[in-house]
Specification:
The protein is of the alpha/beta class and about 260 residues long. It is built from seven helices and eleven strands. It has one domain (about 5-260): Rossmann fold. Strands 5-3-2-6-9-10-1-11 form an eight-stranded parallel β-sheet, with helices on both faces. A three-stranded antiparallel β-sheet has the order 4-8-7. The two termini are about 25 Å apart. The structure holds the ligand O=C1O[C@H](COP(=O)(O)O)[C@@H](O)[C@H](O)[C@H]1O. The site of ligand LXAUTJHC has 11 residues, from loops. Keywords: Hydrolase.
Length: about 260
């Protein structure tokens, strides 16, 4: 077992944003020096709003978001049209993509192919093919390696659309999985598999608000919580995993947090 995940805590979501920005810019610089693009997987839920605060506010002196070099994928997506209220892509589009300043460059975004909405397995397979076309030269890699995954943590400990107790958590081969019956609506979804998530170079969770404190305590302080999807990412991603949280989200958590800094 390597080092535990990093838990960075801040007074509020807006105080968290500059440190999250710095962390993302460091991941961006390292990816660009390795292969000239920055391959990022994004979650939906509450994450895009906090991410917008980190990415869209220019601060002095610590580098720029090089949007034109970003390749954005979805860590999970709901099987709905891209303009549907439940679509993670729509959320990211409205919170972030539509607000990128003119002249700052546009990322290459990979949404789901809505031709396959009626067949969720096919939707997952097609998204996996998209990943293969980007990450795997001639099928030569076992798993895609995202430069950064930016993830949420649900109040039940789910991340992406990997829910507690799901047999999908045991998947070891497929990169993208279908969920026909998600416990959280909407029921039909696709998600990156756990091995893909934990293979990422860097993995960052963002969890804010008092509504997350019970699950944070479980994930960080209990053996049962370490078996929840977020706990499993912590265990296998080890020191590559960082959490950006606000104080209300870790109220009562014993696991040591670094407060107010990266
Ligand atoms: O359903 C989902 O929920 C999780 C967690 O959302 P949050 O609102 O509690 O932050 C999210 O990360 C995932 O992308 C989404 O599909």
């Amino acid at each position: 077992m390597g080092k535990p995940p990093n838990l960075f805590a801040f007074q509020s979501a807006s105080e968290l944003a500059p440190s999250l920005r710095q962390y993302i810019l460091e991941a961006q610089a390292s990816a660009l020096s390795r292969h000239g693009t920055f391959r990022v997987a994004l979650s939906g839920g509450s994450l895009p709003k906090t991410l917008a605060q980190a990415l869209l506010k220019e601060t002095n002196g610590e580098g720029k978001v090089q949007w034109a070099k970003w390749e954005i994928f979805y860590a999970d997506e709901r099987a709905v049209p891209l303009d549907h209220a439940d679509s993670n892509h729509k959320l990211v589009q409205e919170e972030i993509l539509d607000k990128i300043p003119e002249g700052a460059g546009k990322p290459h975004v990979y949404p789901i192919d809505v031709k396959y909405l009626d067949d969720v397995q096919e939707l997952a397979d097609q998204y996996e093919k998209t990943l293969v076309s980007i990450f795997a030269q001639r099928d030569s890699v076992k798993l895609p390696m995202f430069d950064l995954l930016l993830l949420g943590c649900g109040p039940d400990g789910h991340t992406c659309s990997l829910f507690p107790g799901s047999p999908l958590l045991r998947e070891s081969d497929a990169w993208v999985l279908q969920i026909p019956d998600s416990p959280k609506p909407p029921p039909k979804r696709i998600t990156l598999s756990l091995p893909v998530v934990t293979h990422g170079i860097k993995i960052a969770f963002v969890a804010t608000g008092g509504g997350k404190k019970d699950i944070m305590k479980q994930i960080f302080d209990t053996d049962e919580g370490r078996q929840l999807p977020c706990g499993l990412v912590n265990a296998t991603g080890q020191e590559r995993v960082s959490w950006f949280v606000d104080y209300p989200a870790i109220e009562g958590v014993s696991f040591p947090a670094r407060r107010g800094s990266l």
